[in-house]
Design a protein that fits this description.
The protein is of the alpha/beta class and 556 residues long. It contains 16 helices and 25 strands. Bound molecules: S-adenosyl-L-homocysteine. The site of S-adenosyl-L-homocysteine has 24 residues, from helix 5, strand 9 and strand 11. The site of S-adenosyl-L-homocysteine (SAH) has 24 residues, from helix 5, strand 9 and strand 11.
Length: 556
Amino acid sequence: MEQKGKLFIVGFGPGHFEHITARAKEALQESDMIIGYKTYVELIQGLIDDQEIVSTGMTEEVSRAQEAVKQAERGKKVAVISSGDAGVYGMAGLVFEVLIEKGWKEETGVAVEIIPGISAINSCASLLGAPVMHDACTISLSDHLTPWSLIEKRVEAAAQADFVIALYNPKSGRRTRQIVETQKILLKYRDPKTPVGLVKSAYRERQQVVITNLEEMLDHDIGMLTTVIIGNSSTFLYDGKMITPRGYQRKYTLNSEKQRLKPHQRLSREAEPWALSQEDETGESQTGNERKESTMAALLPPKSKTDANDSLELALEALGMVDKEERSAEKSFITAGQPIESIFELAVSPGVANKRFTPEQMITLAEVVGSNGSMEYTPNHQIVLRIPTTDPDMVTEKLHSAGFLLMPIGDVLTVKACDFCDGEKAESIPYAEELQERLGGMALPKEMNIGFNGCGMACYKAVMEDIGIVYRKGKFDLFLGAKPAGRTAHPAQPVAEGIEPDQLVDLVADIIEFYQEKGHPNERFYKFFKRVKEIKGFKHQEIAPKIKLEPAPCGE
Ligand code: SAH
């Protein structure tokens, strides 16, 4: 029987030897014949020994595919090469088209193995930073085989849907208008400042990487070997890199400190106001949080809407917006990325010493939090607010004018003071307020509390905080490094008595700045004190526990 040949359809990646897969190399070695576009054959020259080479011009793809099939049918092992991935605007589809025309079937025909390669969208993205983190698409601007009217439609749809877009074949000697028209369409939907990356000859000798933006992209060199990557509405630049965040959920925080959602918070409903509800009739797919909410719901008067309805409304609202955009796209500048609701997270209290909320303040809270936000009462004498909003400034303005003290949350410094016996012991309040003003909200390796008490009773348990300050006979006593929680909890160590009031704030600031600078990420202050042994002249005392306690983390 006649020996059947084999077709390897090989993507060799962007062009550098190191980015060719091991399987691709093996296939090239195994082949009797290599067929490809001249430039590509040159790029893989180093991998070729005595294989027969058929290299043709760029426009001769069909004849290359036909030749490959013919040779394989004659019993040869033939490698058809494409740059990047052969299945992305490459030779793979063409080879199949030729095979199909001949009635090829996998079972009876020549063997076909397709070997994947790194496509330009990936290789170019890697040189730009991380621009393709979210939903993305590739669009070839070549209208040789695709009508321009269809390409235009795809650009429009992708722009509208806020895809990150990789434009292949953006421009050639003769095709120069396509990229100009494409930019025009994109500018209808995206901000002119949207980051754009231009990568020419990625991982080849003449590699060029340019980061620009949508309105200025045409001022740079774009050619046949360029891939253009257009960011989505949340793509940003950082240190010369183009980054698309993994999701849309950017959080607003006071002081713009970065405080990410903890994993368990990510799934909570208020953190994802746009998600379609997963609640089913049996309740089986509920998360812990949602279950907790349902239990609460049973205790509360019935809500006017169910969660499922909320989600449906959100979805309909979103669809309505898209619809509107479609109709008004010609007229106005709209973005699929128009302001996207994010969670604004902050803590409020009536003041450092003041523990009394006024009814007006409670009304303001209810108004700004609305039915989609949440309020959480915490052990730090604060209420943490999480509010989906597009306008955090308006929220802070309202809260400020209601007389609230606003604080960021997360790994920051919180000043917790006693109520100074409702102001009877008021002499030290200004120092607590100065500490708050100067240090409150400062970003630290780990959350940190200063406990500030107005008399030696220390009834608000100042000595159980990271830093304890107790006012006594016109002066201050200082305590450092409590471990406030756990089975091995312990109070802070008394390190100084009788500190003069005018020295207090500077001294505490020095201690905290030292911790800020030298603390390891996530290292609580008591651990830091233990590790460094001395802070600003105050020595750590080892206290040996009487018995050794087994560690017992939460949940065990
Ligand atoms: N099969 C290839 C794409 C071929 S179409 C792949 O998967 O990458 C040709 C287009 O690919 C070029 O116009 C350019 O837009 C892009 N391209 C291919 N190799 C590239 C490289 N090394 N650097 C930048 N763009 C490249």
